[in-house]
Amino acid sequence: MTTDHTPMWKNLGLDIEAHDALLSVLGQAYGDIYLAQENRPEGMGYFDFVMSEVHGQRIQELVDAQAAGRKVIGCYCVFVPEEISLAAEAIQVGLCSGADFAMDEVEKYLPRNTCALIKSSLGFKLAKVCPYLECSDLVVGENTCDGKKKAYENLGTLADNLYVMDLPQVKSDEGRALLKAEFIRYKEAVEALTGNTIDVAALKKGIAIVNNKRKAMARLAALRHNPVLPISGLDALIANQVFFYDDPVRFTDAVNALCDELETRIAEKTTVVADGTPRILVSGCPMAVPNWKLPAVIETSGAVIVAEESCVGERGCRNLTDDSADDLDGLMDALVDRYLAIDCAIFTPNTERSGHIKELAEKSKADGVIQYTLNFCQPYAMEAIPLEKELEETGLPTLRIETDYSQEDMGQLKTRVEAFVELLK
Ligand code: BJ8
């Protein structure tokens, strides 16, 4: 029997009619894109269930946890350290921003030529359709690109629980000091929110939980490097997206169980693609739920995605935090080191990123790279041009795609991707 979550959504202040419309589009798209795939690993059943209950059972868990005294922290960027949130017994969730919603309203606040991810984050707030956002005790924005920075000024007028984290733009000694100061300020804010003091044992526990989650994702990523490909890129993407919403320990167990099955599939040579299917590395802007547009186009055009150089993927999961220090300052330093290694395009210079893409392309045996940039995203669009040159000099064919969340360019997108896939064959 399915539970009617409407009373809970009403309590959270959601616009029930608009929310119903969103869920029905989401459910339809998930069925068409995900459930229509053939020969999926059984372990994907867990992720299908999580997605079917993403606004239902998971939100009920968060509301129940709040009733038991825990706090929920929503965030937009992989720079917000979940280790610190967990150390104070808070629950951290991602705020997705992967679909257009209430665009007419959004454009009363933001210029039309703003990236879809930013517009979506404001649209979900204005339309009152995101239960994660509405149930968050604290919403953390971060000063990354200029668009996000300025959009948070608007979000701050709509939400009284917005906390803005400043981030460095340069990985200098001064940049590192800024990040450390901001992580300390965040720790203090989370302690004040929860009433829990973070000590060494609590922070070590938070680090261990997140390290285990990242290790499981690294295991999944490595299995996709095998010539016998046991899982589609779309299915791996959903695991990368659920990473941001699910209970971290349960999620880690589910990913490890999926990986056990994928190892068996590889041993038995059970693959999701025919021999010779071109292998694609997708690189660039994050793909938040339910942004499945480009991956679906790629995987219905005769190619398969074997890796994501993205914050919803390798960039967000790469690197563990060293938990060997036995004082708080040492652990905070270790967190700063781990997060400062993220090669987001908002940094200048951002030289490590091209090396990471080449290394990932080699490990995943990619035949080509598709650089994915959201329209009007200057940091990733600017990096795409020199990256294309550099990758092609190493013999890696590259396609640059700029798009948004609308369906208007689907025909053109499909034509360009199909031509690229033909080239790789
Ligand atoms: S660490 S990638 S999650 S900032 S697409 S909003 S950059 S205009 S998302 Fe990101 Fe953190 Fe960096 Fe990762 Fe701006 Fe570009 Fe829009 Fe973007």
From TrEMBL:
Question: Pfam families this protein is in?
Answer: HGD-D
Q: Check the record and name the InterPro entries matching this protein.
A: FldB/FldC_alpha/beta, YjiM-like
| Family to which this protein belongs | Belongs to the FldB/FldC dehydratase alpha/beta subunit family.
Query: What name does UniProt use for this protein?
Result: Fldb/fldc dehydratase alpha/beta subunit
